[in-house]
Write a structure and sequence with these properties.
Chain lengths: 216, 490
């Protein structure tokens, strides 16, 4: 009984395999007959995946906070801040990725005045160039220009341009997924209006990004 | 390319006194030729099988057959040829092959921090791979050189402490050790093994009673049966419970965290059932029994005796369930330090327990979580409670390592976090001294040729101290660090 069922199973599997082969043959172009065996022996080329989507955790350290007007600028240290980023990029040419990388930074707080607690939202573009160093591993440099909003727990919104830059490594985790780790610096020129006066509220951070993503 | 270090061949008679006795009755016949040594299971090392089995590369001099006599000298006046007794042991000196490092159950992602941990497995694993006994001196070791930058960024209402704590360092630290492991395998199962780790120290701010710093790490003897049981005595580490990941390495500043000069009295070392895990200092040592009832289950019962600030003893049982992809560890410990003088009432008792759970999703991801809590109850020489020295310590944290799984160009990233809370009994009528320390890191590592580890670690630590009685003292400190490590495993 067991033998019979095994045989039946084998027959079934063989039929499925034959059907799959037939299907593959049907799919092959008929105009240029290619030896089936040769086609089957060659591995299918990896699909070009040019779109990449990722999320990153952002530990933002050694932050500085410049505030005041002309001639009255004061610099204070920021407590350790943290945030997250979403990035979407497209390989316009091999190794050159252009896209968007909006990020949110929480706990933007001067060390000497913990009552101030702000969140920073940075709408950034991202241009990155990668240098493959080994199979599945590349080093990259990146530039992130953008526009920033700082929303304190009380008071007006500050806004202004921002730019970041850095370098890191990206590592493939299989065919589609990757992990990246990078570090850099970002500086902003945010300000807010107080009546007729413009008050600068500029932030600077060492920006570290640990992310995961996928290519499509 | 690994080159076997099969250096020498020495023939040792079982009785050295008999060595030169040409006329002595030969020993009983040697056993028939043993079958060729099988290659060690899973041995990826290019070390030849013969070397792995401790067989010298050059043929050993033939031992004499029973009942025969030395051949006559080939010329007049020549001394009679000296023959060896049959009961000889070949002595090999061997760089430890890959088979000396057990791979089953899976230790972790290759080249990761978890992979560099043995989870209680017996190593160096050096059985006789052929019938009969074998004596091999295994050589291995590792060394590292760290170049690090560290910056403290304190703040708070105590300006004098803040100013004293505003410090930064450039440091290079190094440590290299040669591990010598003589192993006498009575057969495929039973063994007697010793190990000494000879240490070269590049500062690490010295200690081990100074003048040159540490000179030995391990120094132990062990006997038992492979994968069944053993008894180990001497200076060695207990089994790890709390795993930190690819950062916060031993003997680094990063591991100390954001503890500056102003709060050094309130140091916050992490607690991971670690009072008796690391090698004891001074004239102290361990004795441990290891039992391996199943391939996936192992136990250590470690005892310590010696002298710290006074006569000390301790016990530390650890159990590990290890399925390879899943590891569960649990440990507990007890330590007592008393006084040498009868009139001295010093009595310090430390207790604690903790556990860890780890997952290995080879070849790309491994992660784990740890938690432990311990207490110290400190009675001083006058029989009074030392309130600052009596505290509760709690640590928990986790780590995540990812690897590209590439055997030729392995790259790993690691991230980890840990927080430790301490609370002492000072001025118990008021809020006690409370202080905590957070330590986190990101790491990237590349391994060249399977032996040279190049690792970059960025660290962040944050400490908070809330001290005193009615008038509280608040201290806040941060520490940033970057460390580049070159490590060579051989």
């Amino acid at each position: 009984m067991r033998k019979a069922s095994t045989r039946l199973g084998l027959v079934g599997l063989t039929l499925v395999a034959l059907a799959a082969t037939a299907h593959a043959q049907e799919a092959a172009p008929t105009a240029t007959p290619t030896p089936v065996a040769a086609t089957a022996a060659e591995p299918a080329p990896a699909p070009a995946r040019r779109l990449q989507v990722g999320v990153s955790f952002l530990p933002m350290s050694l932050g500085k906070f410049d505030t005041g007007g002309p001639g009255t600028m004061m610099t204070s240290e920021l407590a350790f801040a943290y945030g997250g980023a979403l990035s979407v990029g497209y390989d316009v040419i091999p190794h050159l990725t252009v896209g968007l990388a909006p990020q949110v930074i929480l706990h933007v707080t001067p060390k000497d005045d913990p009552s101030i607690n702000a969140n920073e939202i940075d709408a950034m573009a991202r241009v990155a160039y990668s240098f493959p160093v080994a199979q599945g591993t590349a080093l990259f440099v990146e530039v992130l220009p953008g526009y920033s909003l700082i929303k304190p727990n009380s008071g007006d919104l500050a806004k202004g341009f921002i730019i970041g830059g850095g370098a890191g490594a990206v590592m493939d985790m299989g065919d589609r997924f990757f992990v990246n780790l990078g570090a850099g610096y970002q500086v902003g020129w945010q300000s807010r209006k107080e009546g007729m006066m413009t008050i600068d509220v500029r932030t600077k951070f060492i920006r570290v990004a640990l992310g995961v993503g996928a290519r499509f | 390319m690994r080159t076997p270090l099969l250096i020498s061949l020495i023939l040792l008679g079982s009785s050295t006194a008999a060595f030169a006795q040409a006329n002595q009755q030969p020993a009983p016949a040697p056993p028939p030729d043993a079958p060729p040594a099988a290659p060690p299971p899973g041995n990826a090392s290019p070390v030849p099988a013969a070397a792995a089995a401790g067989i010298p590369a050059t043929p050993a001099p033939q031992t004499q057959a029973p009942g025969s006599h030395p051949e006559p000298a080939s010329f007049p006046g020549a001394p009679p040829e000296v023959t060896e007794p049959a009961s000889v042991i070949e002595v090999g000196v061997q760089r430890l092959p890959a088979s000396a490092y057990p791979e089953y159950p899976l230790r972790g992602l290759k080249y990761s921090s978890l992979w560099l941990t043995f989870h209680g497995l017996q190593w160096p694993y050096m059985p006789s791979f052929r019938k009969g006994e074998r004596f091999v001196i295994g050589l291995s070791g590792w060394g590292w050189i760290d170049t690090a930058y560290q910056k403290f960024a304190p703040w708070g209402p105590e300006p004098s402490i803040v100013e004293n704590d505003k410090i930064k360092y450039w440091k290079q630290q190094a440590r290299m050790l040669l591990r010598v492991t003589p192993t006498y395998a009575l057969d495929r199962s039973t063994f007697i093994q010793g190990q000494v780790e000879l240490v070269g120290t590049g500062d690490q701010t010295i200690s081990r009673s100074d003048v040159g710093g540490a000179d030995t790490d391990d120094l132990y003897l062990r006997a038992g049966q492979w994968n069944k049981w053993d008894v180990q005595v001497g200076r060695f580490e207990g089994w790890e419970v709390f795993h930190l990941g690819m950062g916060l390495d031993q003997n680094t500043f990063e591991r100390k965290g954001a503890v500056g000069a102003g709060e050094s009295e309130f140091n916050v070392p992490f607690y991971g059932v670690t009072d008796n895990q690391f090698r004891p200092g001074g004239p102290s040592g361990n004795l441990a029994v290891h039992v391996y009832p199943l391939p996936i289950l192992r136990f250590e019962l470690l005892g310590m005796a010696g002298y710290f600030s006074g006569p000390a003893y301790a016990g530390r049982p650890v159990a590990i369930v290890d399925l390879g992809w899943f590891k569960l560890k649990f440990g507990a410990e007890y330590q007592h330090v008393g006084a040498q003088l009868a009139s001295d009432q010093t009595d310090i008792t430390s207790k604690g327990l903790g556990g860890a759970v780890q997952f290995v999703l080879a070849p790309h991801v491994e992660f784990g979580f740890n938690g432990a809590q311990g207490t110290v109850w400190n009675i001083d020489a006058n029989g009074r409670l030392n309130t600052k020295g009596s505290l509760t310590r709690t640590s928990f944290g986790g780590f995540l390592n990812v690897s590209n799984g590439n055997p030729r160009h392995p790259v790993l990233f690691g991230v980890g976090s840990m927080v430790t809370f301490n609370e002492d009994q000072f001025d118990a009528a008021n809020p006690q001294n409370k202080y905590w320390l957070y330590q986190g890191f990101l790491a990237a590592q590349y391994v060249a040729q399977g032996v040279l580890y190049i690792k970059l670690v960025g660290g962040y630590s944050r400490g908070h101290w809330d001290l005193g009685g009615d008038t509280r003292t608040l201290i806040e400190n941060e520490m940033y660090s970057v460390r580049l490590r070159f490590a060579f495993f051989f």
